[in-house]
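From the pipeline queue, job 12 of 40. The input is one protein chain; the requested action is below.

Action: predict structure.
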Amino acid sequence: DLAAWQHEASFRLEAYLLLVLLPMAFYLGRHALERAILAAVVLLVPTMELMNGALEAIVDKTTPEHHILAGRAKDMGSAAVSGCMLIVVVIWGAVALERFCT
């Protein structure tokens, strides 16, 4: 999305990582399902980042002053992105360990 690219530095970073990791998914995965899972979890991160950016924009539009619930909503959105990144690390790590250590 152009707005995300222009206004979200984290989205740009995740897009660059996607350009590197997506081809690696096809190298690292041994069969179609493994490749699909590796690609899907990598695509999950920028997708969640888009949702987080949308949430933050809505919160900022609705409540320009600091409010505890607004802060909580933003923190939860960021935590969701972090959770997706953790999923990537766990799945990619498990596949890499199986591929290179067995």
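Job complete. Residues 9 and 15 are 10 Å apart (CA to CA).
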